[in-house]
Amino acid sequence: EKAGYEHFMLKEIHEQVSAIHNTLAGKVSELEGTIDLKELNMSEEEIRKLSRVQILACGTSWHAGLLGKYLFEQLAGIHCDIDICSEYRYRSPVMNDGTLAIAITQSGETADTLAAVREIMSYNCPTLAITNVVGSTITREANSVLYTIAGPEIGVAATKTFSTQLILLYLLAVKFALARGKLSPDYVKRFITAIRKVPGQIQQILNQKEAIKECAENFANSKSYFFLGRHLNYPIALEGALKLKEISYLHAEGFAAGELKHGPIALLEKGTPVITIATRGQTYDKVLSNIKEVKARDAIVIAVADNTDTEIGKYADIVLTVPRSDELLSPLLSVVVLQLLAYYTALARGCSIDKPRNLAKSVTVE
Ligand code: F6R
């Protein structure tokens, strides 16, 4: 059942290649430059009238949602708020007309998420669920459902459900942008060509997993680990830290790289591993400055960078590479490196990877 893999988690990390392919299948037309999400049940007119998106999710799904916020605002120009579900109900949220709620939950059974959805639906706010489980509770409550086609995820740590949630958020944001005249059909054609290449690019990362394993083994006894990212890779830094905490029981924190100097930098010690996502993009130079700040404290920088980057080696102690991609899609690649790093760290520490202590696959208490 593990198809030759030692753990479900490793199998599921590898299955991202087919899970992303399957989630995209039938939804994109490269020829026409269109995105077809029938299950959304929204006309172009309704999409144009949206004034706000409200995302509701917990844990890893919340990290997917945080990237979604960047995408909805940057690509489609739609104001987007995101809340952790266990907070949403108790903070007296202000409702606006023209809001679409998007609840993201891999299992479709998370009690906090279901409670937040009931709350927002009590204001008659239309609600779209993104889930991996057909027939789960959320699918019976939300007005519409988009499924990630990841197949069953057995490992408690979410991997392929996360990357396929991201795929649906990319498609939604680009579809909304197209309907609202923010992106041209030509741009969308190029976007579709690029997103279709992602499974192959993930396969290239998987083919080089030994380098990630070696790095994980070298730092498996660290006292704590830091993860930095900016812009679209900030949510990925948070996700990398969460994966490591969950399965290796190492203390790990994710930060927006620019926020480090506002306090957390005090935690850095000689030898602290600091994973920094430094793929090329608009914040690349700023990330290099952040790397210098970290190096000045004698911490160790492990950079996740493009395989075409000949400069990064001058700044970072260790470089883990991903294929060069569109900046927009780089989170889909950098996350795979961080998933593998967490996996191999937990393996080196002899942890119970598929069933970490204190955690359950779906959390049905509030
Ligand atoms: C992390 C993880 C949890 C879940 C969270 C929400 O690996 O699995 O943080 O992401 O409990 O679960 P769903 O997506 O089922 O609502």
TrEMBL record:
Residues 43-182, 215-356 form the SIS domain. GO terms for molecular function: glutamine-fructose-6-phosphate transaminase (isomerizing) activity. It catalyses: D-fructose 6-phosphate + L-glutamine = D-glucosamine 6-phosphate + L-glutamate. The active site is at residue 361. It is found in: Cytoplasm. Its main location: cytoplasm. The keyword DNA damage does not apply. Its EC number is 2.6.1.16. Homodimer. This is Glutamine--fructose-6-phosphate aminotransferase [isomerizing]. It comes from Methanosarcina baikalica. The gene is glmS. The chain holds residues 252 to 617 of 617 of the full protein.
